[in-house]
Amino acid sequence: xxxxxxxxxxxxxxxHLPGIRASMKAHAVPxxxxxxxxxxxxxxxxxxxxxxxxxxxxxxxxxxxxxxxSVELGRKPNENGNEGxxxxxxxxxxxxxxxxxxARGPGGG
Length: 109
Prior knowledge:
Strand order of the largest sheet: 1-2
């Protein structure tokens, strides 16, 4: 039986092949479009937006605006009288990760 050896530099080599960067962005754009649609269903103040950002290799889908983490994951009520809310899981659902997040249960454990 053949022995397969994967060299430590394999990921870096593949990541820098021609076309990889464009492929990463091409994969992020449909996720961003789905997230924009999901966000539009819930938007009340209009101060959040979904953006695609390009790194050296990877592409990132992000939510911008006031407290995007609270919008995504929710928040607990606090002593200042702010009500708690469930997260909308906009990016999580757009990326197809909602099923795995639900399986982990509350707190993401």
